[in-house]
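Continued from yesterday's entry.
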Amino acid sequence: MLSRRAFVSTSLSAAAAPSASARDRPLNFVFILIDDYGWRDTGFNGSRYYETPNIDALARSGMTFTDGYAAAPVCSPTRAALMTGKWPARLHLTAHLQGHASTPTHAKLRAPVTRKELPLSEVTIAEILKRKGYATASIGKWHLGDPGFLPVDQGFDVNFAGTWDGSPKSFFYPEWEGKPAGVHGRPGEYLTDLLTDRACSWLKQQRTNPFFLYLPHYAVHVPIEAKKEITARFSRKPPAGGQNSAEYAAMIYSVDESVGRVMRTLGQMGVAGNTVVFFTADNGGVSSREWRQRQVTFNSPLRLGKGHLYEGGIRVPALVRWPGVTKPGSACHEPVYTCDYYATMAEMAGAPLDAGHRPDGMSIVPGLRGGPLRERSLYWHYPHYSPQLGRPASAMRHGPWKLIEHLETNQAELYHLGRDIGERNGLAAHEPERFESMRAELHAWRKEVKAQMPEPNPDFDPAREPKPPVEPVA
């Protein structure tokens, strides 16, 4: 009998190359988005504690991106960028929905009031593909609006479990009853398994039309809850590299099982060779004590985590498997981020973009084919205070250089990520011309997209303002 790891590798290898008949059919798309999943939370990015054999096998069968980024350090803005290809700052959707107007009472700045939903005027990637005859389904977390702004209002034929909620009440039924709303299960059923059941069931129904499955898991967001038997196994495993939460490891293991089940379903349907699979996360891992005063994960060598514009908050696992195109086991070291997937899928599908809806991201198809990507700047704008003690900031990256501007103090930092991925050695004083040039570019970009800025808080009290984050140690 094959081991789980060997079975995964064998089944993916068998489906790696598309058949001649498959090449004549339109491409299918499966987009798997994991919530709060840190850059170093996968085996292919170096974790020695978490176990991700299916995700690692997917990575070996496609192309990984060492410098993959989320469009924001929190969830809703990144999801909006994925759906539209636009910068969250341009959309005025820069905070998670529940935090759209939040400001700690005595903080120095008052955050702007941002959108509470993805506007219906935006043309989503689901709408673009639907016009080309694609069947479309969103199964999992939506977090982009109330009824009237749900997936079925934004180009998806099917919505299961997608609501305004950003997290479930529990990952076990019936404890999750009511959140996410309208989702029912069997007693003791695990939400990650239920979403996978629905995703695989929907896939099996797609026998004639090309399809786009959007599978945004609620995991591995809080609450940190996992199956007891898997948690018990990880509790016996020695910590490694600062990662030591058995329950979080078990949540990741269930997500990995989900990836394996989806890939096996594609193989059983005979469409794996004609289906492009994307895998990434909405922001970096939670490095703070957000869950019951316990550290969730450990992002080192990246600095900090979710809710911050340092690398730990925005650099995420990213891979694309495009059978017959991406070289198995290849890696791209050029930066890509969430906004790029819109134009990429549209180009792959041969779907024209609306003249009045131009994405800010670019197609990464040339890179997937093994060529270079066009050099450009990447931008982030987060004018908010995050629950993880992140503070209002903007950032940009060009080549290996990254600049972060802190909006409370108007001070900025410059780093060379190629030599200092941990952002410990500021180089502004050593590179004054580069520093000023990048800062001017960041300001010009904010002006171009009409980025909302925080304002002075009349209730500011230095003695009672939020404390700075404490960086976790291994």
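--- second protein ---
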Amino acid sequence: MDITTDMIRELRTATGAGVLDCREALTDAKGDFEKAVDFLREKGKATAAKRSDRAASQGVVELYSHGEGRVGVMVEVNCETDFVGRSEAFRKLAHELSLQIAAAEPKYIKEDDIPVAVLEHEAEIARTRAKEEGKPEAIIEKIVTGRLEKYKDEVVLLRQSYIRDEDLSIENLVTETIGKTGENIVIRRFHRWELGESIDK
């Protein structure tokens, strides 16, 4: 696969690694962006990965109201310093995350946040559906795995496609901002309210 300048630029923006390192990573990953990021992290070349261990206790609580007050979102996004917390790039990220939460209705921040019981329930639904569809027994578990991955893409904020650019995940959007600000950034928590929904939801 041909490695384009745009691909290298995108990886540099996300990781802060050098041009040659990015080209090597993309070549090794055969153009797969996520694998290229992992390659750079393993080599210690991705600055965003190095920053992930640093404490993030500054930041902002972003509030957003949508549809004339029909949907409300509160999200806490943390960084390392008050200086970055007030920066345009950081504030823009917090705002975009609140828009994402309002529009895409995630339930969890990261994959590890999903309770085991929820995954088991979703797996059982997928298994039953596959059997009802008459899928061969030999491939049912593969189908279940695929449907679980799709479920995670829908409900995990960091795995969701960015509403403004479907080719970009929210995790990559955060990583890009880490590259711009030079600080670790963490989505700490969020809550989404919709007018008329059950309080037990």
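The chain has three domains: 5-51, 58-110+159-194, 115-155. The radius of gyration is 19 Å. Will compare against the first tomorrow.
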